[in-house]
Design goal:
By secondary structure, this protein is an alpha/beta fold. It is built from 8 helices and 25 strands. It has 3 domains: 268 residues, TIM Barrel, CATH 3.20.20.80; 154 residues, no CATH class; 68 residues. The strands form 5 sheets. The protein has an 8-stranded parallel β-barrel with strand order 1-2-3-4-5-6-7-8, surrounded by 4 helices. Strand 20 and strand 21 form a beta hairpin. The relative contact order is 0.10.
């Protein structure tokens, strides 16, 4: 069925949407955990962490996925011939999301070796037509493969997605720069982002959720866990695969022997990260980065780092692939007013919590997106621009709230409101921006690692999120009507009443922001004839 829809989609004006991207449009942004079937696994514990699908390490246990067709799932392909169905997997094939080609020594393919690269290319070309509804890909570690070799593999193998892993949270601090900035991870994900978007395929990454004495890795803190989720989304990753979920090295369970029997506080943090990522993903699976300005060094301009400082005051380093802005080399990476959008004019960042990083500001990342396919803007709009703002301040000790930053963005006074996707509800709220001096100002208070996604409110649809249509009901209580408005929590509506059939002369009843849904309002001055006519109008 999915393959038929893919064909119909390509025939109806969505030629730019690749197979991998279309599967994610259908199934949603993926938040997965790497699950070992040789350690205890409980589907309810897993699903309560708000994962979208199971990712089996090596072998699956189909019965653990519930009654057929079961919970959505993926797995490693341990060797070229280790394809589903194995055992009872045939009963669950309709829920198979992706297959990652692995090999006898592990999962990270040494694509620099032409023999190994040819072997991988041959596998993809041999099985591609057999899996029209499943994302096929492989994984390498961040700095493992050269650009030329990776590009050659993508060109000849035509994978549905590319994936990498880099684990920055080290016991010796070697994965970060002063100020807990995952500088190498930023450089790696930026490089894989460029390969993914150049080939119109989605990007996946493995967030670090494990500790290992051998690898000198430690459990991430809450702010670090959030950062590797939402920074990945800011770099346009659409599949996140926690490494690992239920092995003895997992960060989420107090059980060194393995299994998901004893969830800890980071498990709860993970559940919150997952639901936020899934809600933001409603739009993000339909978005891609805006085009970069092409310079000889090919540095990135569709994202910008507002550079924070280490506790001692030293400016944070710039990830590979970005360039210090010549106008403010210690302030931000390359940015020019009106180049990425016609509105942004400036910013102020404050370490509002003042608890970590010596009270000094951390990095902030701004990404610009556009629809994956122009038809997502609707029939009457085009060239819509989306912003994602990330608080990059983290600390290896303390909560995400300890790394709270206030980010003020100043815009040209050419619009009045923004539409923002609420990561907890998945609903779009409209926010009127006050004028501060001569600018419209947005104030974001983001915990460490958190992000916000928004666009200018101009009537164009917010991709992936159906508009909320308010519903009204009226009940008479002793001659006084009780009005109930069903809409989105946080949305703003103007409630209006007339004593006769609605016409252009409406009387404003009240102007409110819904604190709950449904919202109940009792009118203390009903019309004299006992009848009321009401409408609800969404306002910025």
């Amino acid at each position: 069925m999915l393959s038929l829809l893919l064909f119909l989609l390509s025939r109806s004006g969505h030629a730019q949407v690749s197979k991998g991207n279309f599967i994610l449009l259908t199934r949603g942004l993926q938040v997965q955990g790497m699950c070992a079937n040789y350690d205890p696994f409980h589907l309810d514990t897993y699903s309560n962490a708000n994962y979208t699908s199971i990712h089996w390490l090596w072998n699956s246990t189909p019965s653990a996925m519930g009654d057929p067709p079961g919970f959505p799932w993926s797995r490693w392909v341990a060797a070229e011939t280790n394809l589903p169905p194995q055992g009872d997997e045939n009963l669950y094939l309709s829920q198979l999301v992706s297959l990652q080609l692995s090999h006898e020594a592990g999962d990270e393919w040494e694509l620099n070796d032409p023999v190994v690269r040819d072997r991988a290319v041959n596998w993809f070309n041999a099985i591609r037509n057999d899996w029209p509804d499943t994302i096929l890909y492989l994984n390498s570690y961040g700095g493992q493969v050269g650009d030329a070799q990776l590009g050659d593999f993508i060109t000849r193998a035509r994978p549905d997605m590319i994936c990498f892993d880099t684990y920055p949270w080290k016991t010796d601090g070697s994965g970060t720069s002063p100020g807990d900035t995952p500088i190498h991870w930023y450089g790696d994900i930026r490089r894989y982002r460029e390969h993914a978007r150049a080939n119109n395929i989605p990007l996946a990454t493995y967030p670090q959720t494990y500790h290992s004495v051998t690898d000198a890795t430690r459990d991430p803190s809450p702010s670090e866990l959030r950062l590797t989720h939402f920074a990945a989304l800011a770099f346009n990753a659409k599949v996140l695969i926690d490494f690992t979920y239920n092995t003895g090295a997992s960060s989420f369970f107090d059980n060194a022997a393995g299994g998901d029997n004893s969830p800890n506080a980071l498990y709860d943090e993970k559940a919150d990260c997952s639901i936020r990522a899934r809600n933001l993903g409603k739009a993000l699976v339909r978005l891609k980065p805006i085009d970069d300005v092409v310079f000889p060094d090919l540095h990135t301009t569709s994202m910008m780092f507002l550079r924070g400082r280490a506790p001692g005051g030293a400016i944070n380093p710039i990830p590979i692939g970005f360039l210090a802005d010549p106008e403010a080399p210690n302030g931000y990476t390359d940015w020019v007013s009106d180049r990425n959008d016609p509105w942004l004019r400036g910013w102020v960042v404050t370490n509002k919590a003042g608890i970590k990083n010596g009270g000094t500001n951390g990095d902030v990342v701004i990404s610009w997106f556009k629809p994956l396919d122009e038809t997502f803007d609707g029939p009457t709009y085009s060239n819509q621009i989306y912003f994602m703002v990330l608080n990059g301040l983290t600390a290896p000790d303390g909560t995400a709230a300890d790394c709270l930053q206030e980010i003020k963005l100043n815009f040209a006074n050419s619009f009045s409101a923004l539409e923002m996707l609420d990561p907890l509800t998945g609903l779009v709220t409209t926010n009127t921006l006050p004028i501060v001096s001569t600018r419209r100002q947005l104030v974001l208070n983001l915990n460490g690692g958190d992000a916000a996604l928004f666009k200018i409110s101009n009537g164009a649809p917010f991709v992936g999120v159906p508009p909320i249509t308010p519903r009204l009901s009226l009940a008479m209580q002793g001659g006084s009507p009780t009005l109930t408005l069903q809409g989105a929590i946080g949305s703003r509506y103007q409630l209006e009443r007339a004593d006769s059939v609605p016409n252009s002369n409406w009387t404003v009843l009240t102007n409110l922001v819904l604190p709950t849904s449904p919202y109940v309002l009792t009118d203390s001055s009903p019309p004299s004839n006992g009848r009321g006519f009401y409408r609800a109008v969404a306002i910025p």
